[in-house]
Amino acid sequence: FEQVLVLVDGVPASDAQTGHFDLNLTVPLDGVERIEVLRGAGSSVHGADAMGGIVNVVTRSPGARPAGRVRLEGGSFGRAAGSLRLDGGFGEWRATVSSRMDRSDGHRAGVDHDVRLGQLRLVGPLAGGRLDVQAGAAARDFGADGFYAPFPSYEETRARTISARWARPLGAGGASGASGAVDVVVHDRVHDDDFVLRRGDPAFYRNVHTSRQSGVDVTLRRASGAWGWLVGAGVGRDDLESTNLGDRSADRGAVFGELGWSSARARVRAGVRLDGREEFASTWAPSLSAGWAIGPRLGLRAAVARSFRTPTWTDRFYEDPANRGDPNLAVETAWSSEAGLDWTLASGSRLRLTGFVRDARDLIDYARPADAPDDAVWQSRNVESARFGGVEFDLVDVALGPARLDAGVELLDVSTSESGDWVSKYALRPLTRTVTLGVRTPVVGGATVAIRAEHRRRGEDETWTAADLRIEVPVGRARLWVDAANLGDARWLDVSGLAAPGRAFRTGLSVDFGGS
Asked: Strand 53-59 vs strand 152-170: parallel, antiparallel, or unpaired?
């Protein structure tokens, strides 16, 4: 998870202290319009951490008329949740506010949670452009029994975010046909973390951290005919106050550019980014990609890129009875290459096939010697080199009468070159085989039934198959649904090495009101 960059509307949300907080977002689900997933290296535009991919959470734009949605949910493990979203406006300005509360006793003792989220988005005209301001807050209290270490741990986190984006078009149209835009983003994120190793005995071991990430990014885009380019720069600062990691700060900066050419059947894009961060040498990340439409339904594509990840504060300085950082960790880098085809069938179904290789140097992982006892300390370290090679196959939207089918296969192989025999905790224990199958079909009264099954394998000996079911019934502007997660009650271990949730049920009702 620390090799994936998380964005919210293009603004970095990944945490500088640790990747464990990458999804500690302030956006309630009802405030989300869609989630974009970029597979593969993305450091040439987005910088550090964009090695395996990028997840961009796109929030809902405020509507022109007063509207909203209320949602209530309940289910297994004492689960209870509710959310509310409201849209409104005044003059040329639009606003949306969303909130959510979610609690559960957890699927086993010591993994209960209590979550509260709130997000505000305000959009309107300013100085010939468009101003988009967002502010959010999140509070998450949760049991972490056995996750970080074999202790009944407990954690409370608080996140506060604010960002302002001003975008203005430049020189649209005209005799030259050239158009462009300038984009300026100012953002700030503060994260508090209170961690107790033994829930019933806070005095035994306790960490309190406050991290802050601030930045300003400016991008200029221009397109004319078959050519287009962008240039940009960003500066920022990361700060940390911690009872375990100490008080830390680091300034960072980057410049980047991209040049693209496209015709009716082909496109080529080249980019490069140079990042500098205090205490580390500058890191460069170039990329080159191309695509070719062989015909109206078949296209080929290929790309090569360099990506990198800077060690987090936790990777370098953290220490507890089960884990220890290394202040001398180097920056992790990798070269990635991929090739694939996209085929749209006559029925409208889509087939996507991709093969890829990623060669990593100084890969950051937590590990311990293979012959060490079970209570040995996990040590952060740089793996000399690691190669990830794989194939991904996706078949999307296949018609089976009234039903629609999706299917996918992902195969991954990992090899390393280093001295000694080590056991990996995270980075070298990926899923090596994933097979998915999903079917969605209408039934009586406008209701739909959807089922999704996944077969997964981690390493050589961990294999499991699980399926989820949803039945959804529309009633006017309301939706009623029933979910069954892990329908067959499959058993496997999660990333912490403990039992994943068994069979669970959930039901919910959402009602839309107002609007057009």
From this structure: unpaired
Angle at 302 between CA 298 and CA 305, to 5 degrees: 155
Residues 332 and 383: their CA atoms lie apart, in Å, by 9
What is the token pair recorded at 139?
Answer: 């509070």
Q: Residue 431's closest CA among 485, 402, 401, 392?
A: 392
Residue 419 confidence (pLDDT): 62
What does the pLDDT read at residue 426?
78
C-alpha neighbours within 13 Å on the C-beta side of residue 166:
9
The pairs formed by 206-209 with CB atoms below 8 angstroms and a separation of 24 or more are 206/243, 207/242, 207/243, 207/244, 207/320, 208/242, 208/243, 209/17, 209/240, 209/241, 209/242, 209/243, 209/244, 209/245
Asked whether 191 and 21 are in contact (CB, 8 A), the reply is: yes
Q: How far is CA 120 from each of CA 94, 117, 217, 260, 270, rounded to the nearest angstrom?
A: 11, 11, 21, 36, 36
HSE on the CB side for 313, CA within 13 Å?
24
**Rounded CA gap, 398 and 347, in Å?**
8
Q: What is the Cα gyration radius of the chain?
A: 24
CA distance 64 to 94: 7
Closest by CA position to 210, among listed 196, 188, 193, 189: 193
**CA–CA distance, 365 with 380 (Å, rounded to integer):** 6
Q: Cα separation of 275 and 281, whole Å?
A: 9
pTM flag (> 0.85): yes
Q: Count other C-beta atoms under 10 Å from residue 442's C-beta.
A: 12
Read off the tokens for 289: 């990609």
Measured from the Cβ of residue 285, the count of other Cβ atoms closer than 10 Å reads 27
Return the pLDDT at 173.
55
Token pair of 339, please?
Answer: 């090739």
DSSP string covering 290-328: EEEESSSSEEEEEEEEEEEEPPPHHHHH-B-SSEE--TT
Strands (E), 346-477: 350-369, 378-400, 403-417, 422-424, 431-442, 448-458, 462-475
Q: Using the structure block, give the residue that is written with the tokens 């309630």.
A: 28
- CA-wise closest residue to 4 among 31, 35, 33: 35
How much helix, strand and coil, in percent to the nearest 5, is found in the chain?
A: 5, 65, 30
Low-confidence ranges of the chain (pLDDT < 70): 172-177, 419-420, 516
Sign of CA dihedral 104, 106, 107, 109: negative
pLDDT digits (tens, 9 = 90+) for 161-190: 999 999 999 876 555 567 899 999 999 999
CA atoms of 366 and 200, how far apart (whole Å): 27
Give the pairing type, strands 378-400 and 323-324: parallel
